[in-house]
Design a protein that fits this description.
Layout lengths: L1 H16 L4 H28 L1 H10 L14 H8 L15 H13 L7 H13 L6 H16 L5 H12 L4 H15 L11 E3 L5 E3 L7 E7 L4 H17 L4 E7 L4 H10 L5 E3 L8 H5 L7 E5 L5 E4 L3 H12 L2
Parallel strand pairs: 3-4, 4-5
Antiparallel strand pairs: 1-2, 3-6, 6-7
Helix pairs in contact: 1-2, 2-3, 5-7, 7-8, 8-9, 10-13
Length: 329
């Protein structure tokens, strides 16, 4: 089961990276079809021989859009509706399956790779949770998976879903509710409208640069690294938006989580990142990243001219739409 899941994810990643190679894409779709058949065969076999394990397999069986697109106009709609196609949320055994937690955590985390706004992510997560028997242990496990993913992404959505957890399961799971409350308190300082915590880090020439030095402009704090594939793929879009809005009062501060100076500087030059940059070259121990609770990259924080937080984790079309809202009003 884990082997098939790993192969499935590898094929999907390869497809995303090779969209301009039709011959290779055709081969990948054929391999996905074979993987689909293997998943279905395993699920059918387990349902007949080991029904309990079949319940776990059902939570991990996801067929490829490219071979099963019936009724869907695009891959995103397919993903949202078919990710848990074989799950039976009202099955009482689900209350004791750790894979409910893990499966929902993976789904919630994947929503951050689509480019949705936080409001859209919240809607999709609420739709999923509404399919569970409300207040059940299955619901508790699923909501815990949502919170784990949101904490990993340092998302402000942790607050509304954390409140749900405390309200519904605070008495049944007091230790878990206490941890959730503590995390909610930490995140409250980073909510929309709150002052952004200040920090000072060295620029490429060694000169200290303080975030608050950029007050007076709309600032995108962009946590990235030269070794981060998604960051590098997003850079052309950020460059385009910087060139479009910079003269209107838009600034970017790139905070690198690199450990080596040369790859950092080479990536800045190669990707034509002409905005301001800082790094203490401590990798994930970067002072600003720790201050902002960054656990994955790319991660962005958009500030207003007074240094207050306007939005977090905007990328792609969502970032462009927000900047258009700011500068074209």
């Amino acid at each position: 089961m884990n082997r098939l899941k790993g192969e499935r994810n590898r094929l999907l990643r390869s497809y995303q990276l090779n969209r301009r190679n039709p011959a290779l894409l055709e081969q990948l779709v054929e391999q996905m079809a074979a993987n689909d058949r293997a998943q279905l065969h395993l699920l059918d076999s387990l349902q007949r021989t080991q029904p309990y394990l079949a319940k776990i397999a059902a939570l991990n069986t996801y067929l490829s859009y490219f071979n099963h697109p019936e009724g869907y106009d695009n891959e995103i709609d397919y993903f949202l509706n078919e990710y848990f196609r074989f799950a039976q949320w009202d099955d009482p055994d689900y209350a004791y399956l750790a894979w409910v937690f893990e499966g929902v955590k993976a789904y919630a985390g994947a929503l951050f790779n689509i480019g949705f706004t936080d409001e859209r992510r919240r809607q999709e997560l609420e739709k999923l949770l509404a399919r569970m028997p409300q207040g059940s242990r299955t619901h508790q496990l699923a909501l815990g998976g949502v919170l784990a993913a949101l904490q990993q992404k340092n998302s402000p959505l942790y607050l509304p879903f954390g409140e749900q957890f405390v309200e519904l399961f605070g008495e049944r799971a007091p230790a878990g509710a206490r941890v959730v409350r503590e995390q909610m308190q930490r995140l409250a300082a980073f909510q929309i409208g709150a002052p952004a915590p200040d920090f000072t880090l060295p620029a490429p020439d060694g000169t200290p640069l303080r975030l608050s030095d950029l007050r007076g402009k709309f600032v995108l704090v962009d946590f990235w690294a030269s070794w981060c594939g998604p960051c590098r793929r997003e850079n052309p879009n950020v460059v385009r938006l910087y060139e479009r809005f910079h003269d209107k009062g838009f600034e970017i501060l790139g905070v690198s989580l690199d450990k080596l100076r040369e790859p950092w500087l080479q990536a800045i030059e190669k990707d034509r990142l002409t905005w301001k940059h800082v790094s203490d070259l401590k990798g994930w121990e970067n002072e600003a990243a720790r201050l902002y609770g960054v656990r994955s990259i790319p991660h962005t924080v958009l500030l207003d001219p007074e240094g207050r937080i306007l939005a977090r984790n905007l990328r792609g079309k969502a970032l462009e739409a927000k900047l258009e809202e700011i500068f074209n009003r």
